[in-house]
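Human: Respectfully, please carefully check these C-alpha cells:
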Amino acid sequence: MASAAFSFAVPQCAPGSTLSVKAPDGVTLKIPLPENILPGDELHMGKGADGAWGITKAIRGVPAGGAAASQAPQAQWRSAEAMAADCASPEAVTVRLDTTKGPILIKVVPSWSPLGAERFLQLVDEGYYGDIAIYRAIQGGLLQFGVVKDTDPRSGRYSRLQDDRLVGVPYAEGVVSFAAAGPGTRKSTVCIMKADFRTQLGKGALGTPSTETPFGMVAPESMATMHSIACLGDIPQCGGKGPDPGKLESLGNEYIRSQFPNCDFVTGACRMR
C-alpha cells in the first residue's frame, strides 16, 4: 500500500515556480510553490480526507549564512501583544465581511501595508466583494477569495500593486493579506490564514519576498466564524480537488454552485468605522 505522506527538498528554482513531483502512489503532482518557500526548504505532503495530496507543513532550510541567518527574520516578528495594540489603534479601520456563515470583522492596519490596506479599503468601498466564492479553503491552511468571471465589469477594473515593505507582521492565525503570483502582482484576491505559519514554515518564514505583506487581521470575536467556512480542499493546481480558479474565472459562480454546492461565499463588505 502506497504511503499517504512523503517529503522532499525544494530544488534550486525561481520563486513561485511550479514543481513536478511524483507521489508514492504514482500520481505526478504539479505544486506551485508559495512565494515564501525557498530552495533547500523541506516540503511535507499528505493526503486529506478527500484523498487529495496537499502541503501539510514546510521546514525552513538553513540558508547560506548558516543558522544565525535563518533566525534573523524571527527577531523582526511583532509580538501578539504589539499586533493587538496595532489593531486597537486609532489608525485601524474595522471592515465587516459578510459571508454565508455570518459576519467576519477584519481590523485593517494601514501601517502594516500602506498600498495593500488602501487597495482593500477601495475594493470594500466600491462594492467589489459581493457574491464572491471562497473557492480555496484548506483545513489548517488558509481561505482565499476574490476571483470574478472574466466578463464581469470588476475583472479588469484594478491594476496590480507594487509590493509593500515588510514591517515584521508574521503569518499568524487570522492574518489577512492579498494573494500574489510574484513581485508586483497583488490585485484583489485575498488570503486569510487559518493557522500560524511561523510554526509550519520555521524561523525564516518572515523576511522572504514581501509580495503578500499582511494588511490586517481577523478580530478575535470573529475567529470562530472564520474557522466555520466550508473547507473544500486545495485548488487542482496544487494537487487538490477543490474549485479550480481558472474555471471560476471563465465560467463564473455558476460553476461553483453546480459543482461545489457547499462552497461558502462573501456576500458583501463595508467599513464599520
